[in-house]
Specification:
The chain is an all-alpha fold and 143 residues long. 73% of the residues lie in helices and 0% in strands. It contains 5 helices and no strands. Helix 1 crosses helix 2, helix 1 runs parallel beside helix 5 and helix 2 runs antiparallel to helix 5. The longest helix is centred in the middle third of the chain and has 30 residues.
């Protein structure tokens, strides 16, 4: 992803977006656990750790899913849905010219042109939340 004015990449902005989204999820889980009411320190640390754990699992799993999708693993499913939709409603969906191999090669070529869109940043922010949750779990057990 490039900024048209300066030509510099703005991938660090993706990290900020994922951190803000992760903090929102974390605050939602913490609110559900009662972290913003009156509670002992040990329970507060547990609520914060739970929020970070849920956020980490969401971001890590989405990051892995997006990465797997960029490898072409799900191409067979999109090909089957397009073929099935064309058979059910011929005028609505354009028929694919060629067989699955041709479709896969076309998709692979378009994936190389697009490049990676930020699954690495999503995965790394999720790993950061997981690290924070592990530290908070250790602190909780020490109390």
């Amino acid at each position: 992803m490039r900024d048209g004015r300066s030509g510099k990449t703005w991938k660090p902005m993706l990290y900020g977006i994922w951190v803000i989204l992760g903090l929102g999820i974390c605050l939602g889980v913490m609110s559900g656990r009662g972290a913003f009411g009156t509670m002992p320190l040990k329970d507060l640390i547990l609520a914060i750790g739970d929020g970070c754990t849920v956020t980490a699992l969401c971001l890590l799993s989405m990051g892995i899913l997006v990465w797997v999708a960029t490898t072409g693993f799900f191409d067979i499913f999109s090909y089957a849905v397009r073929k099935g939709a064309h058979m059910l409603v011929p005028g609505l969906v354009r028929d694919l010219a060629g067989d699955y191999y041709t479709y896969k090669m076309d998709r692979q070529g378009s994936r190389k042109e697009k490049g990676q869109k930020g699954e690495k940043s999503m995965f790394l922010v999720g790993a950061g939340f997981l690290l924070v949750s592990l530290v908070l779990t250790v602190v909780w057990y020490q109390l």
